[in-house]
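for the writeup, i need someone to sanity check this before i put it in the appendix. the sequnce is what the collaborator sent (i think, or maybe the updated version? ugh). structure was predicted straight from it, no edits. if anything looks off just tell me and ill rerun, i have time this weekend
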Amino acid sequence: MSLFHSNNVRIVIVDSSQRYIGTSSNFSIDLNLPVYCGDFDRIALSQISLPRSWYDVATNYNTFTLKEGAISTTITVPVGMYNVNSLATTIGTLLSSASPNGFTYTLTYPNSATVVNTNKYTITCSNSGTTKQLIFTNSMYQQLGFASSSTNTFTGATLVSTNSISISYINRVFLKTNACATAQDNILHEILVAGQYPSTSFVYYENINFDINSKEFTNPLNNSWDFSLYDRYGNILDLNGLEIVFSLILYKKSKTDELHMEHLKIQNLEKIL
């Protein structure tokens, strides 16, 4: 069975650097489609290359609260890219500097060469008597291994992450466009493997099944299209100025598959009757 009508396919390269408005992850671009594309009814992502340049700690999602006794203070973590060691050092320094009582805090992470790795931080305070808590709302909880909207109380001088830490917590990326306006939330494609790529590398993804992953191609006569990259929390990814490149497949869906499917349905129905 043929997926495409012959001569009814167009491959379109989209380079965000060629946009006429917006940013590298939220932009409008002129695709300059030929007139015959007006007959196309399906669109699919072919492949995409995007920089893993978004921050592990992002602006507006970089605070939590330290509470010692009855005194609370806000901890603001510098935005940027981290690993388990750099984050541990940074958080320990911030907690110690902000401590209302002058306590010293350190964070340790299991050395998998010598001990079992639990993928959790142990936070140790120089004081074991005063009640100490880390309070999270909607930020920094994943990187440090706690639950959202949670209050976490030290046991004496120590506090251990309740969950596995997830420093690179953005592991799903959604490419949205008004070229498939009838799709749920205008999602053209979901990329699940983004989290496995290290910071400053490039995420590469190739679609291996165009038909299943295609969407209805809406308003094919338009020249201008909007594209945006979102994370799993509904936020537009900030690629910090680096560009993305991806290719689209536009086509007229073959009726052959539909006819075969109808024929199978009729045959099965006849067997039942």
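The helical segments are 84-98, 141-144, 255-272. The CA atoms of residues 49 and 204 lie 5 Å apart.
thx in advance!!
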